[in-house]
Amino acid sequence: MPKLKVIVAEGFEDLTFKVSDEGGGMPASKVEKLWSYIHQKSMPQNDINDPSSDQIPTDSSIENSSMSSNFGNFDLNFGSNSDYPLFGFGVGLPTARLIARYFGGDLDVVSMEGYGSDFYLHLQRSGNIAETTPDLCDLSLQSASSSVSELIDSLKYE
User: Fold this and answer.
1) Nearest Cα residue to 44 out of 100, 96, 109, 92
2) Count of domains in the chain?
3) Rounded CA gap, 113 and 27, in Å?
4) What is the mean pLDDT of residues 64-76?
5) What does the pLDDT look like over 75-130, one tens digit per residue?
């Protein structure tokens, strides 16, 4: 299994995680399909050591595997597929990108076929700025009183 390199860059406005490998990369035609739910596989099964494979490895193919980085060793034994019902179906990256974009960030990939891939997760920093959210208690009270008023009004005119 190729080693992973993780770099964290802290900017004033954002935080970027870069995850790099030298696992052979992907052709450009496959990179675009990473972000699509439409092109997912229905039955993930392949050998993790086969760089020409089109599918994501199953947990049985990486059982007892480990990877190392500057942060130490990580155990890749994920348990059974019943623990992760969507494991290997390819929904992780599109979902992660969607969540990152929802919060003002992004998830990108640069892949060099025959060499490896770099994944970038960009997140906005808000520092100590409080997020502007409505007061749920006030909204609940307004909604409840509005509903009661509408109910009373509807009963008056019947």
Assistant:
1) 92
2) 1
3) 5
4) 47
5) 555 555 556 666 666 788 888 999 999 888 999 999 999 999 999 999 988 766 66
Predicted pLDDT of residue 127: 64
Indicate the residue type of 140. Answer: S
Per the structure, the complete domain to which residue 95 belongs is given by 1-40+84-131
C-alpha–C-alpha distance, residues 72 and 41, integer Å: 32
- pTM, two decimals, is 0.56
Q: Is residue 30 part of a domain?
A: yes
User: Residues near 21 by Cβ (< 8 Å), separated by ≥ 6?
Assistant: 2, 3, 4, 5, 116, 117
CATH number of the domain within which 100 lies: 3.30.565.10
Whether 33 is in a domain gets the answer yes
